Amino acid sequence: MAVLKTAVPGHRDRGFESHPLRFKIKESTIIDEKVDEYIEKQKSPQKEICRKLREIICATFPNIKEEMKWGVPAFADGKFYIVALKDHVNMGFSIKGLTKEELSLFDGGGKTTKHIDINSLQGLNQKRIIKLLKLVHER
Questions:
Q1: What phi, psi does 111 have (nearest 5°)?
Q2: Given Cys at both, which of 7, 90, 95, 117 links 16, Cβ 3.0 to 4.6 Å?
Q3: Residue 60 · residue 130 · CB < 8 Å
Q4: pTM to 2 decimal places
Q5: What is the DSSP letter of 107?
Q6: Does 36 fall in a domain?
Q7: CA–CA separation, 9 vs 18, rounded Å?
Q8: Distances from the Cα of 24 to the Cα of 17, 107, 122, angstroms
Q9: What local confidence, expressed as pLDDT, does residue 44 receive?
């Protein structure tokens, strides 16, 4: 089971003060060391893409909980996930409660989750990602 630590100022042992994204992740975000490990073991550019996606998620939802679920970083009890693949990163979303029109905003053909493909940092559309995060989080 992963050790979850609240990112609090002054927390020195892998908490907020020592976290590499301390200026981008809000103090109230719960940081999971296993998520750090997952991201850091990825090759480039997947590592940088995963870092950026995590930053976007945590900035969009400052009190979000992250954890390892299904072997990949997951957020908001599995509503969102990040998976580094051979030549790109998928950001996955639970699609429970979405309309057909809303489903068309995603890639993939899953029955319970959809994803978007991200092949490079330059190809990462932050506005689209934030829009999808908020859409799924509301459901």
A1: -85, -25
A2: 7
A3: yes
A4: 0.80
A5: B
A6: no
A7: 9
A8: 12, 28, 19
A9: 96
The per-residue pLDDT for 16 is 43
Mean pLDDT along residues 63-76: 94
In angstroms, the first-to-last Cα distance of the chain is 28
Classify the phi-psi angles of 87: left when phi > 0, otherwise alpha if psi is within -120 to 50, otherwise beta.
Answer: alpha
- Backbone dihedral angles phi then psi of residue 136, each to the nearest 5 degrees: -70, -40
pLDDT band at 110 (very low <50, low <70, confident <90, very high): confident
Q: Whole domain around residue 131: which residue ranges?
A: 43-138
Q: Is residue 5 part of a domain?
A: no
pLDDT, residue 58, reads 92
Q: For residue 111, is it within any domain? A: yes
- Domain containing 124 — which CATH number? 3.90.1150.200
How do the residues of the chain divide into helix, strand and coil, expressed in percent and rounded to 5? Answer: 30, 25, 45
Residue 34 lies in a domain: no
